User: Fold this.
Amino acid sequence: MATGVWLEKLQELIADGAQLVEVLPEAEYADAHLPCAVNIPLKRLDANTARALERGRPIVVYCWDSL
Amino acid sequence: MSPRAACRLETLGCSGVYDYVPGKVDWLAHNLPVEGKDADLVTAGRLAQHDVVMCRLDERVGDVRELILASGYGFGLVTTADGVVLGRLRRSALDGDPKLRAEEVMEPGPSTVRPDTLAGDLAKRLADRELQFAVVTNPEGRLIGVVRRADLERAVSA
Assistant:
């Protein structure tokens, strides 16, 4: 199971080169996203779209909130 | 949504997967930069000023009175050492015994707003309540700054 992180750890991961993935729909990503985040909406997350992510680098996914 | 995405990535063979639990709203509420169409929206955090007088619970009113009166706000904020807002020292609280501690005369738990509050929305809320300032904090209650209604209204009309 993936590790849950909060802001402080997130910033450490970013500093260490983590990849950020926003899993919200495209329109919400277009409005605002974390710097350098890529968009893979949950509904399109599969082996093909996940191929864009580099293996060997941490991956941090996020959506709008914790709900 | 993000826990399911993290789980799905792991089923796809990814390792080192993390879930930023509080999500984008938390990032915005910490006044951190974003990219995208809304990146240039004017928010409370963007207009917050950082010159409000701050003091600790045990500071004497007499030691901060002149600073607060000389500031453009007419109030000061009582915070912890790491900036969590505990109270407000109103002008009216400064006229008593100067040896009293801030803790004894502060108004506890002043209202605060998050930095991602849109300037127009906040300007209207302040106007509706006939307020001139809003205290801006992050989700942990740490002070980001104080925003003036006049600055919000100026930004909205620009």
